[in-house]
Amino acid sequence: MPSDYDMNRSSYAGLPERFFARVDPIPAAKPRLLRFNHALGLELGLAVGDLDAEALAGLFSGNIIPPGVEPIAMAYAGHQFGHFVPQLGDGRAILMGEALDRAGVRRDIQLKGSGRTPFSRGGDGRAALGPVLREYLVSEAMHALGIPTTRALAAVATGEPVFREQALPGAIVTRVAASFVRVGTFQYFAARDDVDAVRRLADYVIDRHYPEAKTEQQPYLALLRAVTDGQASLIANWMHVGFIHGVMNTDNMAVSGETIDFGPCAFMDSYDPAAVFSSIDSQGRYAYGNQPHAAVWNLARFAETLLPIIDAGADRAVELASEVLATFSMRFSDLSLAGVRRKLGLSVREDGDAALAEDLLDAMHRNQADYTLTFRRLCDAAEREAGDTDVRSLFVNPRDYDEWAARWRARLTREPLEPRARAAAMRKVNPAIIPRNHRIQRVIDAAVQGQDFAPFAELSAVLSQPYQPPEGFESYADPPQPSERVQQTFCGT
Ligand code: AMP
Ligand code: MG
Fold first, then answer.
1. How many domains does the structure of the chain reveal?
2. Which residues make Cβ contacts (< 8 Å) with residue 423, sequence separation at least 6?
């Protein structure tokens, strides 16, 4: 096997033994490479370019462990739908090691679906093909949209069934992340009153993600600030593309600020702030419009774990942490407004902009207008008024659009850019193509029921250019027909 395969022992494995369990992936019966992300492989500087599909399948199933690598399963806890679970951990994932990417950034490489670990509890440690393909498609789509996210390096079929409600083909996805440290990782140690571990973990995260915090007077408070800022920005980004994470439990919030865990996630079709797709989110806790609130709630749980290392005086620590948490809301609204201004082609700031944006969203909601298409078609409308026809056709009552569009046009007269330049700028922030649920479902059905991976390859390719759909694939921008609408998405467990 490739001794030059450039993956190193994970730096996380250098932390004390109670941070993880040493465990090897359980070999897969008949691994078969479904997809390898060559571009990402190059970015990571992995010397796997010469390997054939069989060798890649061996590596990304965990059947072959490169020399020097020490696989581990990370310990973490987490609040799931508001209820604290003191021990979760990598029950079906194994951190293989890290690579130094072309930009000099250390990136973690993890197999998900690679068999049981000491954290598996009742689970089988495996993943089904459908959720693996979903994670591959959506995480790569998020990246192409320009949103911080874990990436997908490979998908491998295990050649073994997994048993859910029915027998399904098993698969493994290789994920790449800035790191896999979660809010829940901090909670794991805080729940055990292991302040020393919390401090070591905080130092590790500061070293790895926020080295500038070290020079601050209060490095751990600076860490809280950095993670808070990162989440405000991440959630604003999600909202701008209509992404609903679906399971924003604290174990699914990475302190690096990347999107992580694509179980029951979905992109909205028609705009609805209350949109929920996850089958297990019956209360709408993680509905589209609730995501900023869920994020602050999680950040408060994060802050609690840091209190003992922020200040020896408990009251003082709470006071300091609360001040930081209170900045989330302002920061999130600023980023939201800045983003929606870009989406509407507004480059100067005016007081009425927030109301203008809100009124459009209200009209879209009342009229069940498609979120992505409305903004995309506004790009044409911003260039020439004839473009209005295609926007208004998305509204049940097109006059609602007309009324709003008259205000928008009046506002655009106070903008410096030429219409064509304005439209071009808008097309860079309003995607034409998002991973629509019905498209993903079609890909999964073809793969699971017909062993046909051509739709997966095609959707993958189209999603890599969300702002400029390749010629001939424009229909990928279309919303679902009523009969194609996917109402629910499921966790991959
Ligand atoms: P998730 O819903 O993917 O965020 O996972 C929540 C917890 O359940 C994590 O600790 C997972 O490792 C664990 N888990 C999920 N699916 C499985 C499985 N098939 N086998 C073992 N553990 C699992
Ligand atoms: Mg998870």
1. 3
2. 345, 379, 380, 382, 383
Q: Is residue 269 domain-shared with residue 326, that is, in the same domain?
A: yes
Q: Would residue 485 count as lying in a domain? A: no
CB environment 37-66: b (16+ within 10 A), e (fewer): beebbebbebebeebeeebbbbbbbbbbbb
Q: How far is the CA of 109 from the centre of ligand 2 (A)?
A: 16
What ligand 1 atom has the least distance to the C-alpha of 88? 10
Q: H or E segment at 412?
A: helix 398-412
302 shares a domain with 227: yes
Please name the residues in contact with 257: beta carbons below 8 A apart, sequence gap of 6 or more: 148, 178, 209, 227, 230, 231, 233, 234
pLDDT band at 285 (very low <50, low <70, confident <90, very high): very high
Q: Mutate which of 88, 92, 248 to test ligand 1's pocket (most atoms within 8 Å of Cβ)? A: 92
Instruction: Say if residue 32 is in the same domain as residue 152.
Output: yes
Owning domain of residue 275:
196-333
| Closest atom of ligand 1 relative to the 91 alpha carbon | 12
What pLDDT, on a 0 to 100 scale, did the predictor assign at position 1?
39
What lies within 8 Å, CB to CB, of 338 at 6+ separation is none
Looking at the structure, tell me whether residues 319 and 349 fall in a common domain. no
What's the distance, CA 180 to chain centroid? 13
Are 274 and 364 part of one and the same domain? Answer: no
261 and 291 in a single domain? The answer is yes
Residues with C-beta less than 6 Å from any ligand 1 atom: 88-92, 119-120, 123-126, 251-252, 261, 263, 491, 493
pLDDT digits (tens, 9 = 90+) for 422-457: 999 999 999 999 999 999 999 999 999 999 999 999
Is 190 a member of any domain?
no
Nearest ligand for residue 76 CA: 1
Catalytic positions are: 251
Structure tokens at 384: 């020439």
Mean pLDDT of 175-195: 98
Question: Per residue in 125-150, pLDDT tens?
Answer: 999 999 999 999 999 999 999 999 99
Q: Are residues 119 and 247 in the same domain?
A: no
CA–CA gap between residue 189 and residue 47 (Å, rounded): 37
From 333, 354, 385, give the residue that closes a domain: 333
**pLDDT at residue 2, as a whole number:** 42
C-alpha span between 6 and 106 (Å, rounded) = 12
Beta bridge partners of residue 175, listed in sequence order: 110, 152
Q: Are residues 147 and 295 in the same domain?
A: no
In this predicted structure, the answer to whether residue 3 has a pLDDT above a threshold of 50 is no
Beta-sheet strands, E only, within 182-252: 243-244
Beta bridge partners of 99: 107
